[in-house]
Design brief:
Strands 1, 2, 3, 4, 7, 10, 11, 12 and 13 form a 9-stranded mixed β-sheet that branches. Helix content is 19%, strand content 35%. The chain is built from 7 helices and 18 strands. A hairpin with a 5-residue loop joins strand 16 (273-277) and strand 17. By secondary structure, it is α+β, with helices and mostly antiparallel strands. The mean pLDDT is 91. Belongs to the pseudouridine synthase TruB family. Type 1 subfamily.
């Protein structure tokens, strides 16, 4: 049984669910999940969790991400990308400086209204299901974090801007580009989208599905699987004393004195998360330090 994460390069034309289905066929494993939906026309990094690693899907979804996108100015569509119906067209009379000033307004926290063509649920219904029925409903805005936006290229003849966006979870890039277009007064849509990073997973280490198939055939896929505990490599490491292994095997709380080793112990305060191993070095799970009880309590178990 494989347990771990494979950094997949999702190609255009596939849904994220398509990737999961194909991975189940390639690996002959049912317990597989993806870590954040990419639209069919988008491509790039899609970490896929296998076996026990499916328990970290929500933690990877929460990671910061980096995208490269092309914004086409002068057009507004109902999907906020080039696949939708055109709602408005306008002349484009903006220069690079105006685009920079508009872009900079979105750096930092910003209240974003999810697009109708999205998987966000309202009253139990996915927005895209309502949109396909020709319905549009009022949506509440959500705070998203834009850490940085860099203009990589501006083509004034084609009215296109290539951007690199570093952002937090839940950010819709096509909505961001739509909102930038609104500020510029001419509208804008997303022409292309490439996700280049999810947390520590970078596009340079991603694999096409065809490559995964080849590695499985050659028996070398193990060298391309990221172990679960590697995801938490930034957390302090705790190793149990052998006579207290049974505490973590049962998911019980433990004290610092029950450990043989604890890294960065001087910096561990209330709420801190640590990765816990038994005395033989087997990864057990993530524990949280409860300062009031002076104990480590189970947060997410993988044993």
């Amino acid at each position: 049984m494989i347990d771990g994460i494979i950094n997949i390069y999702k190609e255009k034309g596939y849904t994220s669910h398509d990737v999961v289905a194909k991975m189940r066929g390639i690996l002959k494993i049912k317990k597989i999940g993806h870590t954040g939906t990419l639209d069919p026309e988008a491509e790039g990094v899609l970490p896929v969790c296998i076996g026990k690693a499916t328990k970290v899907v929500d933690l990877i979804v929460d990671k910061d991400k980096t995208y490269e996108a092309v914004m086409k100015l002068g057009i507004v569509t109902d999907t906020q990308d080039m696949t939708g119906n055109v709602l408005k067209e306008a002349s484009v009379n903006v220069d690079l400086q105006q685009i920079k000033e508009a872009v900079e307004r979105f750096i930092g926290g910003y209240d974003q209204i999810p697009p109708m063509y999205s998987a966000v649920k309202v009253n139990g219904k996915k927005l895209y299901e309502l949109a396909r029925q020709g319905k549009e409903i009022e949506r509440s805005s959500r705070k998203v974090m834009i850490y940085n936006i860099e203009i990589l290229k501006f083509d004034p003849d084609e009215h296109e801007v290539r951007l690199r966006v570093d952002c937090g979870k839940g950010t819709y890039i096509r909505t961001l580009l739509h909102d930038i277009g609104e500020i510029l007064g001419c509208g804008g849509v997303m022409k292309t989208l490439l996700r280049t990073r999810v947390g520590n997973f970078d596009i340079s280490g991603s694999l096409y599905l065809s490559e995964v198939e080849e590695y499985v055939r050659s028996g070398t896929i193990g060298g391309h699987i990221v172990s679960v505990d590697e995801i938490f490599s930034s957390y302090p490491k705790a190793v149990m004393s052998s006579k207290y292994d049974k505490l973590v095997y049962n998911g019980n709380a433990f004290f610092k004195r029950n450990l043989d080793f604890l890294s960065d112990q001087d910096t561990i305060s209330g709420g801190a998360l640590v990765r816990v191993y038994d005395s033989r070095g087997v990864f057990v799970g993530i524990y949280r330090f409860d300062a009031d009880l002076s104990k480590f309590v189970a947060y997410k178990m993988f044993l």
